[in-house]
């Protein structure tokens, strides 16, 4: 009877103080936050018995209760506070060698002090958790999120209390056919709370998201900036002031009954206050203030235009060649998921050394530090959602999941001047279901952001007699036609010079992957696989082959550095690393580095 009344009390409480997932808070770094990063206790739960009872039914006595024995005879068979800790943000695979290969469920717990404030809401924000995250605050269910590479947040105002609070997550990174990404992918399935966690204080009515960008058409020497803002509530009559001090711009707009507002600001034509456009040579960012009811959100925003015209990509109206490289979000030296500015700076400085003005962040949205550091360094970005290989095209749930990740990727980074391309997929098998799925995604991307280029990494569809053809129905939906090709590695070694390319679309072309593996320090004849000389020669041949492609507007060789992959098991060479890096995992330059660098100097 006593257990039943507790259960009833528990269910009632869950119902009353139901937290809710709220749309992503834009520019969270500029808000009033308490960091919940640091040491979190963890419990490995291989059979999820902390969540399901022995009948595989969700148990109301689960580990989310963080229960402690109250009387000597009480039976509690877990104790977070006596359990080991790991760092957040951070993946579990590289923090506990027993978990290097682990895919499954792990509980994580952290206590935090909080002081409730009148007239404030408390939003619990996660930069990313891979893959399936259930969240409880003080034993109450806050919500669940699927997807390992985009932010999510819950309004937990009715769950937090003054003093000590506890947040608990059940995380599961098991792979599933209907998931995004699906069951197989060529990168390490790092699990855990891989990015920042913070508690954000906001007013009951707050600025949820905004976009501030340059309109394409100059008006004489003047330029126009469009600013749109959305509140968390459909509140009319709210005055929002945008100030860009350096441009001597200050203007106010009032929200409509949807809690939205848009205005156009016109820059001065005087030389002194003329706007400087963001570019790799001059990655100019302007300090921007967005004020409402005494709340101020600050941001650093660059202004530029990006468009595709015929077979050219135009940045600020001028043709540009995207000298790129692909990279995964992985720290060097076997360090697991990259998750801070220092990691970003290290990886991006290697790309800069290579002569890059562009990076393809593969195959999922990387953390915000990577995007913002690239913006400061003048590096343009291709950002992608993990619709990778054999996705469950016919599953409505899978589509919703992919669309949600696309929405969240754009919502977080749409004010970043350096982000020029949204990519909706990589190497996906042709079928009518696939075309419908991807077609819908491309159109959805345009509803979320009409100011950037849409692309995806396609595959060569026919290659007989050295004639390579690219035929893909998705060409109708993209602004830039991109494809991966592995001449010299997976096919046609030493035949690059004979190759011709047929790409029957009047759109710019990016070769979004090419390359081959090499073990740093392994030397030998150029036809000896895995030697630096083999990789060097492959690039010599590939780059002169690519130079023949009409409308080539960019390249992103695969890949900046060797990276962990469960699909690479050759002993003494791969040892669970994909060795196609131009740099080793330690940052050592392979011979191919200088081939690409020289080619980019010629561009
Ligand atoms: C594919 C894929 C990459 C992979 C690479 C490789 O094209 O897109 O994710 O790592 O090829 O085979 O090394």
Highlighted features:
603 residues; alpha/beta; 8-stranded parallel beta barrel; 6-stranded antiparallel beta sheet; 7 helices; 30% strand; binds alpha-D-glucopyranuronic acid
Structure description:
- This protein has 603 residues and is α/β, with parallel strands linked by helices.
- It contains 7 helices and 34 strands.
- The strands form 8 sheets. Strands 22-23-24-25-26-29-31-32 form an 8-stranded parallel barrel, surrounded by 4 helices. A 6-stranded antiparallel beta sheet has the order 4-3-5-10-7-8, with no helix packed on it.
- Helix 2 links the parallel strand 22 (322-327) and strand 23.
- Helix 2 (341-353) packs across helix 3, helix 4 (396-413) packs parallel to helix 5 (432-448) and helix 6 runs parallel beside helix 7.
- The mean pLDDT is 95.
- The structure holds alpha-D-glucopyranuronic acid.
- Residues 186, 363, 426-427, 484, 513, 558, 578, 580 line the site of alpha-D-glucopyranuronic acid.
- Alpha-D-glucopyranuronic acid binds at residues 186, 363, 426-427, 484, 513, 558, 578, 580.
